[in-house]
Amino acid sequence: MVKLVMVRHGESIANALNQYTGWSDVGLTQEGIVQAHKAAEQLEGLYFDHVHTSVLKRAIMSAYIIQDELNLNYVPITKTWRLNERHYGALRGQNKDVTRREFGMEQVHQWRRSFYSIPPRLTQPDPNIGPYKYFGPEIMPRAESLYQAYQRIIPYYVDNVGPRLLDGKNQLIVAHGSTIRALIKYIENINDKDIDGVEVANGKPLIYEFDDKLNIVNNNRMKK
Ligand SMILES: O=C(O)[C@@H](CO)OP(=O)(O)O
């Protein structure tokens, strides 16, 4: 049976500081590096035909650690902005507890977990265009709801991951909390409301086994 494994990056510096991150490009903490190694331990013996990650270094570094631990450094890796974390707009860099005090628990919960809620937008375009310069400014959001992020994430999955799975080739995605929530919503056909309750932990591999029509035969998500 073919396998899809999705891993959220190890703890980032912003995670440790309890800050909104989104498209901010922050590195891993020591704990995050350990978590990526532990994720790889759980995948020992698995072969992946292709690795997919974002253009953000916390995911890329986690993917490299996993590939290295599995001795799969030679396996092709695609880094795409489409797998970036949901853009947190003007919230990025702010402490989540501070925003809870300022805006209330319910508003923060909506911003963080509702499918349609859009965080406050950046007033100026993002100056960090390095990884995005070949695509033009139109791909760079000023904030995204999970719904908006879903619109850019799922086409990547449908074009680049699904066909390889149908071909019987295991795939590894190393990405972000909300990126993986969007993918879980699509793969498990979860409705817009119930996706609010889905959480993805750092460095805990989600393993899906599919039949040859990509029906889910097994997955370990609810056991996490
Ligand atoms: O800050 C972020 O980008 C995300 C993931 O770390 O946080 P949250 O879980 O609050 O959506």
UniProtKB/TrEMBL annotation:
Protein's UniProt keywords contain Metal-binding: no
A Gene Ontology biological process term: gluconeogenesis
SUPFAM superfamilies cross-referenced by the UniProt entry: Phosphoglycerate mutase-like
A matching Pfam family: His_Phos_1
Gene3D superfamilies on file: Phosphoglycerate mutase-like
Superkingdom classification of source: Bacteria
Name of the protein described by the UniProt record: 2,3-bisphosphoglycerate-dependent phosphoglycerate mutase
Organism: Companilactobacillus nuruki
Phylogenetic lineage: Bacteria, Bacillati, Bacillota, Bacilli, Lactobacillales
